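To whoever picks this up:

The nightly regression suite flagged Peptidase M50 domain-containing protein as changed. Nothing in the input moved, so I suspect the structure step. Input below, exactly as stored in the fixture:
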Amino acid sequence: MNFEFWFSALFGIVLFLFGSTYLLKRFAGVEAHYIYSIWRMERFRRFIGRTYFLHRFVNLIAKLGLILGFGVLASDYLFARKQGFAKRVVVAVLTVASLFFIYYNTLYFAIDIAPLTSNYSALLTLAFSVFGISLFGLLLLVVNGIHILQNILIGEAACPGIAPVIPGVQIPKVPVFIPWYGWIALFFSMIVHESAHGIQILRERLTLKSAGLLLIGLLPIGAFVEPDEEELKKAEPKKSMCVYSAGPAANLLFMVVFWLIGFWFFNTFYQPVAEKYESVYLDLVEKVQIESVSERIPYCGNPKAPA
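Regenerated output under the current build:
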């Protein structure tokens, strides 16, 4: 019975993907490839053109994104490589101080207390402060790889190095679940990301050939902008780097803006209401009886983390 259900479900999904992709090709003229399609949208390209007035701002966040991503390497290349030694040192020191400030006020606490990374906290702090997210992310992968290898050698379960996440779908053995409305956030993130790429392409006087969506069946899983690849290859390295960094940098800014909006909403609407029910909450908590306290917290199947 279970086999028949999953076989029928799989058959239905495959049939839907093939059928919907064919219909898009047949009636919308979309470039189709079996179960996925590339939908080039002239409206999206015109939309990017209409938002070109933001080009100075996008260029700024693209450069800041490069510095956040590559630390002193990016700041020196962008602002100081043709300057004297003293000025290059000053730029490097300011970069390290700025990245350390960002790291300490965002990631430091989580990294310092997490069982997987607490032993490497100083090294990760140094990596982020000097070389930004690039070396920091690489070291996180190395640390997780070491953890997986150690647990395999001693026969214990390990945290997965990477796992797929689909909004609204609980994937077996993946502890992270994103509600269905995660698709809304994904859609806006795609628009912001690709629009920033497109605006930067236009700012650098490069050709924006097309823009659109990547779909599996009828489900949008990505967006894209298509520059003239030959022009991009011949462009100055600084210009091409800003084109590549504009999208991720815009997403980071988008995240910060919505975090601030959420923080404001919580303090303006939620907290005043919650305070009215504080007495009810305390009445419930005071009646709870603690029967036992665990000295260790299970971590990826192993009781390794101290409580």
